[in-house]
Amino acid sequence: MAGIQDFRETSEFSRHRVDQCGAYLGHKSYWKLYAIENYLRVILHSVLSVQFREDWFDTYIGKKRRQEIDRLKKDYLNTRVHTLPGRHDIYYLYLSDLNKIMSASRHLFEKVIEDVDSWIVKIEGVRLPRNLVGHMNFPNREDRKRIDKLYGELSTLVQKLERKPKFTVRIP
């Protein structure tokens, strides 16, 4: 699928081109963003639930955002045909929210992740490309490279954390 072109950049509509673009994004970018966001959720929960306390989430989420999450939860619970985002409220947060939490609690993360500030910058670097893909748009080549690079580096970080003595990976 090398050299695939966004179907919106052609003059003639083709369902086949739309399908190709969707398959390409799913195969190349979407799954990596899924992994990136969930790796971050696991890292945040693993660090904050041990170094801060189990109910860390309530401390880091403001009243307005908490109300939005509660409203979303009610929507899901009132319409039982839909799958809930996850058993912990962290699954209702966006990449930008996750990065803000890491930034606000960087003093706790630097005990586990040496270069936490560079991670905050790297994560911010894929926020807009993540939104593009999350809203079913086509990122450019440089944005796809940013996603690929962060995925690889974050995967390596998680592997290092898994091997770190006295560190337990905790799924929220």
Helix/sheet category: mainly alpha
Overall pLDDT level: 91
Largest sheet: none
Report the count of strand segments: 0
* Shape assignment: globular
Unreliable residue runs: none
The radius of gyration over CA amounts to: 18 Å
Termini separation (Å)? Answer: 36 Å
Determine the fraction of residues in helical runs and give it as a percent range: 55-70%
Beta percentage is: under 5%
How are the SSEs placed, and which strands pair?
Elements: H1 15-51, H2 56-60, H3 63-78, H4 95-104, H5 106-109, H6 116-125, H7 127-134, H8 141-163
Helix pairs in contact: 1-4, 1-8, 4-6
Describe the structure.
This protein has helices at residues 15-51, 56-60, 63-78, 95-104, 106-109, 116-125, 127-134, 141-163. With 172 residues, it is mainly alpha-helical. It has a domain at 14-54 and 94-163. Helix 4 runs antiparallel to helix 6 (116-125).
Quick summary:
The protein is mainly α and 172 residues long. It contains 8 helices and no strands.
Key structural traits:
mainly alpha; 172 residues; 8 helices
